[in-house]
Structure formats: C-alpha cells, structure tokens
Amino acid sequence: MITFNVPDITCGSCARRISRSLAQIGLPAEIEVQIDVTAKQVRIPATSGAGVVESVRDAIERAGYTVRALGPVNAGSPRRACCCSAPQATKLDEGQVSIERAVANCC
C-alpha cells in the first residue's frame, strides 16, 4: 500500500470530503482507496502508477487537507505516522539527534 499521511482528517465528514474530491479525478475502477480517519491516512494499492499517486495527492490537497508525507506501508501492520515517514532532514542543528539514530529508535 502507498500511504498518504493526512494529519487534519478528524471525522467522517473529512473522509467524505476527500472521497468526493477523489471521485472527481476518475480513478481507474481497480484502484481501491482506503480512508482511515483514526490513523489519519489515505491508502491506495502499491501497484498504482506515479500519475495516480500524484492525482490522489492533488485531490486530497484540493479538498483542503495537508499531505505531510507518503510512502509504502505493510498491509499486515498498520502504523501511525512517525519519524519513519517524515521527510529526511537536510541539515542538523547543533545538539540534534541524527536522523539515523531517530529512525533506529522509532516504531
């Protein structure tokens, strides 16, 4: 699965708003979109092409929601968004923990 972390999904109404936006882009019938309000995620099959991934991301943003990061998630072990899915830091300030160490202690 490809997971879009959408931190501002708070309720079923948010999920419906995202669903309506996704319906407008005309996804192929074989693309099953999963919206998980509790995990604050939108998921599509990993076999979806790059064009579909960008279209889904754009649709979520057009619906008024923020997409923080996206990436693959194991179907058997749903996880909450964490440092593993955060964008990699390009520069560390003095005193910060390195990204490698932060990831090693994550999840």
Number of helices: 3
The end-to-end span amounts to 18 Å
Strand content: 5-15%
Strand order of the largest sheet: 2-3-1-4
The main β sheet shows up as: 4 strands, antiparallel
Structural class: alpha+beta
Low-pLDDT windows of residues? 74-107
Portion of residues within helices: 25-40%
- The string of secondary-structure elements, in order, is EHEEHEH
Mean pLDDT: 73
Rg, Å, rounded = 15 Å
* Shape assignment: globular
**Tally of DSSP β-strands:** 4
Q: How does this model look, in words?
A:
The protein has 3 helices and 4 strands; from the N terminus they run E-H-E-E-H-E-H. The chain is of the alpha+beta class and 107 residues long. A 4-stranded antiparallel sheet has the order 2-3-1-4, with helices on one face. A hairpin with a 4-residue loop joins strand 2 and strand 3 (41-44). The longest helix has 13 residues, at 12-24. It is globular. Residues 74-107 have low confidence and may be disordered.
What are the defining features of this structure?
107 residues, alpha+beta, 3 helices, 4 strands, 30% helix, 14% strand, disordered C terminus
Helices, strands, pairings?
Elements: E1 2-5, H1 12-24, E2 34-36, E3 41-44, H2 50-62, E4 69-72, H3 99-104
Helix pairs in contact: 1-2
Summarize the structure.
With 107 residues, the protein is of the alpha+beta class. It has helices at residues 12-24, 50-62, 99-104; strands at 2-5, 34-36, 41-44, 69-72.
